[in-house]
Amino acid sequence: MGENPIAEVVIDFPPVNAVPAAGWQSLADSIIAAGADPATRVVVLSARGRGFCAGVDIKEMRRDTSHETLLAANRGCAAAFAAVYDCPVPVIAAVHGFCLGGGVGLAGNADLIVAADDATFGLPEVDRGALGAATHLARLVPPQLMRAMVYTCRPVTAAALHRFGTVHEVVPAAELPAAARAVADAIAAKDPVVIRRAKESLNGIDPVDVKRSYRFEQGFTFELNLAGAGDRARQRFEEGR
User: Fold this and answer.
1) Which end of the chain is more exposed for a tag (fewer CB within 10 A), N or C?
2) Where in the sequence is the domain holding 109, given as residue range(s)?
3) Which of 103, 122, 124 is nearest to 45 (CA)?
C-alpha cells in the first residue's frame, strides 16, 4: 500500500462552514488533486467546526449588488459536487452537525456517508429563494420525502437516513473520525485497480446524470433572482425572519 492511501479533504470556513463562492472551487480543486494522486485509494471528506456544511454564504451574496457572486457560487457548487462524483476513487463523507444545501450536494454525491448521531440533512433552498441539490437529496431519501423536504425545508436525521440505507453508519460524534477511517481502511485494503474500475462502472450505471440534472435545477435559481424572489428571501434570512 502507498504512503498516503487515504486522502482527507477538510471543509473549514468558520464559523458555520457557509462556503464562499471561491471556496467551492477551492474545494473542487482539492478533491480533484487528491483523486489524481496515484497513491490515493480513498478520499475522506470531513469538516471542522459546528457542522459539516451550511451551504453557500448567503451574506456574501447579499453584499454583492450584481449577480457575480451568485454566478460564481453556482459554478463552484457544480464543480465541487462533480469533483466528488467524478473522483476516480471512492469518497466517504464524514458528516457531523448540520448538512444543508450545498452540504447535501457534497454528501449526496459521495460513495458512502458515515455520520455522527447529531447530524441532520436538509435543503432550506425554498426559504432562501433558490433551488438546487434536490438531485442529490433524491439519492438519500425516497421521492415523496424528497419533495416534502424541498417544499417544507424540514431536515431529517442521520438515523432516518441510516434506516433507508443511504447513511452507512451512525456513531457518537466523538467517534466519527475513527469510524470514517475504519471504512476507508477497509476499502483501501482492496486491489486499487479493481476499486477504481468499480467506481467508474457504478457511475456508468447511474440512472440519473447528476451533473446535468443539477445544472437544470440551477437554471431556476437564475430565474428566481431575475424575478426578485431571491433577493427578497436572502433579505429575510439576513434579518433573521
Assistant:
1) C
2) 6-172+203-238
3) 103
Given a contact cutoff of 8 angstroms between Cβ atoms, the answer to whether 60 and 69 are in contact is yes
Instruction: Specify if 52 maps to a domain.
Output: yes
| Sheet of 6-11, strands arranged across | 6-11, 42-47, 91-95, 112-116, 169-171
- 68-69-70 Cα angle (round to 5): 90
- Report the sign of the C-alpha dihedral through residues 158, 107, 228, 21, in that order: positive
Is 11 among the domain residues? yes
Give the Cα separation of 3 and 166 in Å (integer). Answer: 31
Residue 22 CA: distances (Å) to CA of 26, 56, 116, 129, 227: 6, 10, 28, 21, 25
Alpha carbon separation from 167 to 34, 52, 71, 221 (Å, rounded): 23, 15, 31, 28
Long-range contacts of 63-70 (CB under 8 A, 24+ apart): 67/225, 69/21, 70/221, 70/225, 70/230
Q: Mind listing the pLDDT tens digit for each residue in 106-163? A: 999 999 999 999 999 999 999 999 999 999 999 999 999 999 999 999 999 999 999 9
